[in-house]
Amino acid sequence: MYAVFRWCFIFWLPLFLICCEQQRDGDLDIQAESRTRENKPPKRYGSVIRIKPEMVEKYRELHAEPWPEISAQIYRNNIRNYSIFLKDDYLFAYFEYIGKDFAADMAAMAMDSMTQEWWKLTDPCQVPLESRKKGEWWASMEEVFHQH
Amino acid sequence: MYAVFRWCFIFWLPLFLICCEQQRDGDLDIQAESRTRENKPPKRYGSVIRIKPEMVEKYRELHAEPWPEISAQIYRNNIRNYSIFLKDDYLFAYFEYIGKDFAADMAAMAMDSMTQEWWKLTDPCQVPLESRKKGEWWASMEEVFHQH
Q1: Which domain, by its residues, includes A16?
Q2: What is the mean pLDDT of chain B?
Q3: Does the beta-carbon distance from B9 to A8 stay under 8 Å?
């Protein structure tokens, strides 16, 4: 009788413990991801530039179907949730940066030959603000308010 | 012997099955949340307004420490990831809406007495664009590009 009891115990108990451990690991993964999301939010960037009224339609068309290489480069350089908004002759860009070295990622983007080709099409649509900082094309903005 | 075997089986099997079911439910929850995130992204809103140069500092101060009631109302009306950016005499607002009836949520916000008090302070800082649509204060913008 004890032999059978032992057999049952040996057979089911490890399965039960393995199953509990998997459940616990799953819970810890979710907690870890949640912590990362809360404690290390991406850095938000807002920037502004003017657009030539006669180039609005061309700019719209270009951005309705951006080249896949451009999208891939943006992603590779750690930019996420990237929108460009238009009103009158103003463009506003918003994105979130999830990398560790923004300057290095922006430099890598500027070095990319496809991005350079893309900018040859988009730059002539735009008129940079005179008040922009040295070295900027799009003028960086100050975030005066944020609520998660 | 069979009695003991049956006892072991009856005792451990339900525990094992319950444990497996919990694990499966956890997996399904994660899948469901992932699907929601991918297939039902929030709707993004961009809007723009001008600011009186002499009111910039007051506007900055107000938004550095917004009233808790205002933050709560914004949250209650399903607005998330809300930023306001400043450059020269322009303010740009970006937020994500996770509710089902934007017009109803905005109407509820406009009806809130604390929000009305808040707007009595912020409205005099701002100069709405003449090109804004009827009924707007902040002028809504067109999203011409988005990359997740």
Answers
A1: 1-33
A2: 85
A3: yes
